[in-house]
Amino acid sequence: MRGRFAPSPSGRMHLGNVYSALLSYLSAKKQGGEWILRVEDLDRQRCKKEYSAQLLDDLLWLGLKWDNFSPEKGGLAPEFFQSNRDSFYISAFNSLCEKGLVYDCFCRRADLLSASAPHASDGSPIYSGKCKSLSENERNLLLKTRSPAKRLMVEDKSISFIDGHFGAQKSNLPRDVGDFIIRRSDGNFAYQLAVVVDDALMGVSEIVRGRDLLSSVGAQLYLYGKLSLIPPDSFPEFYHLPLLLSCDGRRLSKRNKDIDMGFLRDNFSAVDLIGKILFLSGCIEKEEKISLEEAVGEFDWKKVKKEDIFVA
What we know:
alpha/beta
C-alpha cells in the first residue's frame, strides 16, 4: 500500500494543506503502508525553489517524514519534482495523440488554469467543445496568431467509482468533465495528465485529498483507461476529505494567506497542531497535544467528518 502527498510549491503551506498531508499520512501508516512526497511544480511561473525547500522543512517540523526521503539530495530526489518529469508526460501525450484523442484548442483562459489542480470552488466551466469543430481553414488561420493548447476528447459515457469516504459516485464525462486540457499552449503539461502519469508510475494505491477535487476523479479514471499504464484492478483508491473553511465560508487558500505555516509554527508546537487537526477532523473528542505515533492509533475513516469544517 502506498499513499502520497503532492503539494504545489506556489506559496507557504496553510492549515488546509497540512490537514490533507497529515490525514493522508495517517491513513497510509494505519495500514502499514508507505507515504511518499511528490512536488507538483508544473507551473514554472508560480512555483519557486524556495517554496519547495520551505515545504519540505515544514513537513519535517511536523514529523511527517516521507518514505522516499533522500538525505543526500536535499530531502527529495529530482525525479519526484514534476518539473523534471517531462519525458514521462511526452510519452503519455504522444500515446494519446496516436489514438486520435487530442485536438488543438485556441481558447485562452482555461489554458492558464490547467497547470493547477482544478478545485471545484474555482468555478471552471465545462468546456463547450468549440475548437473541436473548427474547420481546417479556421485552424490554420488561428495557428498564425498563437500556439494552441491540446485537449483530450472524452467519450459519451459515465464513470462510476466508490470514494472511500463519500461512497458511490458517478461522473458523466460530457456533462461533468468535458474535453480537458492535457498540454498548455506554452508546452507545459497540464495537471490532469501529469498527476495520472505520476501516480501510475510511482505505484500510488491510495489518494487522499480535499473533496473539492472529487470532480477530477472522472477525468483521471478516464485517462488511466486510455493510457493503459497500469491494469484497471491497480487503479488507486480515492478518499476525499471535507474542506477546512474560513469563518466567511471560503476554502483556505495560499492566495488569501490563510493560517499559513509561518503563523502556525510561531503559535503551535507540532503536537499541538497534530491534536488540533485530529480534533477538527473528528478523530478525537477534544483538542489536546498528541504525538504522531498516538495519532496513527486514533485515526479512523469512520470518525472523519463528512461536512465541511469551519476554522475559528
